[in-house]
Amino acid sequence: MSLDLTATSIDLTRQLVDIPSVSGDEGPIADLVEAALAGATHLEVIRDGDAIVARTDLGRARRVVIAGHLDTVPINGNVPSHVETDEAGETVLWGRGTTDMKAGVAVQLKLAVELAEPAVDLTWIWYDHEEVAASLNGLGRIARNRPDLLAGDFAILGEPSNGRIEGGCNGTVRVRVTARGVRSHSARAWMGVNAVHGLAPALAKLAAYEPAIVPVDGLDYRESLNAVEIGGGVATNVIPDKAWMLVNYRFAPDKSAAEAIAFLEEFFAGYEVVVDDAADGARPGLDAPLAQEFVRAVGVEAGPKYGWTDVARFAALGVPAVNYGPGDPSLAHKDDERVPVAQITDCEEALRAWLTGAITA
Amino acid sequence: MSLDLTATSIDLTRQLVDIPSVSGDEGPIADLVEAALAGATHLEVIRDGDAIVARTDLGRARRVVIAGHLDTVPINGNVPSHVETDEAGETVLWGRGTTDMKAGVAVQLKLAVELAEPAVDLTWIWYDHEEVAASLNGLGRIARNRPDLLAGDFAILGEPSNGRIEGGCNGTVRVRVTARGVRSHSARAWMGVNAVHGLAPALAKLAAYEPAIVPVDGLDYRESLNAVEIGGGVATNVIPDKAWMLVNYRFAPDKSAAEAIAFLEEFFAGYEVVVDDAADGARPGLDAPLAQEFVRAVGVEAGPKYGWTDVARFAALGVPAVNYGPGDPSLAHKDDERVPVAQITDCEEALRAWLTGAITA
């Protein structure tokens, strides 16, 4: 079995979707990608675990990094792929990973071998473990092991964005808010202190809160503040002595994760607040000259990205980065994940035109 | 192995505690009780599953039913029993079932064989499955199969009451209160409806509620209304579409379980309210002449019982019933369950004096 990188980007998406690559099992697909690149003499290919990096070294004035992840969330009866017509009459490719994000990877792989003489030097990165714990993330591993491989003047992450350009991303913090009480039998509740009832003021404040919309570098970042889990209880006849909420704050990239945590600690003053997860966002970086040229070339309006993505890893290294790829992000991880084939072709053409055209920035 | 019913009630408590009889495993202890009663010719002994009923038939004007359960909650390193001196300097018998309620059963067994000529006819009942689902309860099974065996003018249930007389019991209803929402990614929360936030008004109302104290037949029943469990959440990055509370209402016996459920349905109007469990309480029945005489004979003030007990099964059959037994009810089910030996002897003496004295009621 091998990958045919000269196929259309639609066919290539199908080839990729039909190779299962759930996080932790990216070995076979990484092997095939590495083998398929072997004949492209304009590329230096470097393997790091199950991530593949392919670089031109043409001495261009600027370097653009273009990255995508090879893994998917678990398959649930949605592999192999098939082509169908959706309710809107559009031809779509259906299956796990079509949207998130093998269509984006297919476009990248096709252009990587095709573009032997791009207008900028290119670093292509296809990596593992994006859909699982941040500590396993392949791009994060490369950033730690070989930060030089991520260096560039601009980065494009192929996460699904419906073919729009989505700049930066909100940050995310998750905290556990805990109320304490004293157990007693529920028939003599006055001998105890009900911790679930103790959560009431915090939950009421949270439910009443209206999240802000924060303009950053010309884009409006809409925040979210939500309980994503709540729990408490010992037994059905016991007054609970502990109750908690997991609260997720998606905050605009005008503030750091540390500032977001400080906000939550004040918001939930009087409760135990323990940080469960925290990641800085990324400013959109659309003031970078290469970014502005890219937006002009693609010819669509840029918007903000709400979900946290690996663009933040580039931002942390000082590389302006945007999300740009085929597929509806709201279908990511859904069992009926699918991508309009026209978006795959549109992305391929826009990227090719920009990378082979006159880049003056 | 056999039980020696001529031992002191303290020794007999130890014998019973050292025979494991966790709910569902009452066969061996029921066999020993049945065998030990064989020589008591003044008793007719009837077995129903692992429950033993022993009756006198002396043609007395009144019949008193005295009952206790043979089972315990699971053992947790607290069998066999031992004698120790507690912090207050009292001699206590320590171990699973000492309080709930083998000390009470020991007093009953001892008096059952000893009192061949009581002042009233007696029906003694030792039964199984009290500590588990109500549908398995041995006393409930007898009430269905042989309600004639529960007939009497007055009933005494040997549940721990610290040697006080506790009349009737609160009822209990448990409902599941559910809020619904719409899932979305927590980075785009405005596309969903957060069901945990939807619980906020219900939880706030519950936390602010001040339960009533309701006088019934001269005793003050203190009610409780509490969330005993709360839950909700799909994943840490998903707006939850469902959240729920289990709410336990311990209500005074002036109202039925159906009335308590109606109260909760109105209290939580706008939410899904599903009944999880419901049991009527029991009015104290202390206006019954035999009950009044018993209270005078024991010489302690009667108080209300807050926890639901099987006295409600007698009340449902029209038999006034009280709780009266050695042991602190707040130690029931605790791993350091223990009973002051003096309370065992006091109960034995008070019951003997009343059952052999002049009962005129």
TrEMBL record, chains A, B:
InterPro entries: Bact_exopeptidase_dim_dom (IPR036264), Peptidase_M20 (IPR002933), Peptidase_M20_dimer (IPR011650), Peptidase_M20A (IPR050072), Succinyl-DAP_deSuclase_DapE (IPR010174). Its EC number is 3.5.1.18. GO terms for biological process: L-arginine biosynthetic process; lysine biosynthetic process via diaminopimelate. It comes from the Bacteria. It is an enzyme of class 3 (hydrolase). GO terms for molecular function: acetylornithine deacetylase activity; metal ion binding; succinyl-diaminopimelate desuccinylase activity. Coiled coil: none annotated. Residues 171-268 form the Peptidase M20 dimerisation domain. Keywords: Hydrolase, Metal-binding. Pfam families: M20_dimer, Peptidase_M20. This is Succinyl-diaminopimelate desuccinylase. It comes from Agromyces seonyuensis. The lineage of its organism: Bacteria, Bacillati, Actinomycetota, Actinomycetes, Micrococcales.
